[in-house]
Amino acid sequence: MELDRRNMSHRCVPGPPTWIAPPSKPAAKAVIRAKLAEYRRMCQERDRLILEAKKEGFSEVAIADLSGHSRNTVRSVLKSHGIS
């Protein structure tokens, strides 16, 4: 195997190593914080829809079936908003 001598004219100059910081990534806490905030918004929307369905006369069982949540979740949301 033959060496390519064209690029060998540049010599390494000894000196302190140069450290280059890696590209910044969002901190793990910031990512989790954003996900939790999004989850809270989703839960608030879920609660609003459950309350609206109950106001329109849907039963807890019907709301649970349509929303995909358990009846206990529906009941808990209604109870937390003073509706039984």
Secondary-structure map:
Blueprint: H1 28-55, H2 60-67, H3 71-80
Helix pairs in contact: 2-3
Total DSSP E strands: 0
Level of helix content? 40-55%
SS-based structural class?
A: mainly alpha
Are there runs of 5+ residues with pLDDT below 50, and where?
Answer: none
The percent range for strand residues is under 5%
Please trace the helix and strand order, writing H or E for each element: HHH
Mean pLDDT: 85
Terminus-to-terminus distance: 84 Å
**Which overall shape is indicated by the principal axes computed on the Cα atoms?**
rod-shaped
Q: Count helical runs.
A: 3
**How big is the Rg?**
30 Å
The largest sheet is:
none
Give a description of the structure.
The termini are far apart. Helix 2 crosses helix 3 (71-80). The chain has 84 residues and is mainly alpha-helical. It is rod-shaped and about 80 Å long. The chain has helices at residues 28-55, 60-67, 71-80. The model has no long low-confidence stretch (mean pLDDT 85).
Question: Which tags fit this structure?
Answer:
mainly alpha, 84 residues
Compact overview of the structure:
With 84 residues, this protein is an all-alpha fold. Helices cover 55% and strands 0% of the residues. It has helices at residues 28-55, 60-67, 71-80.
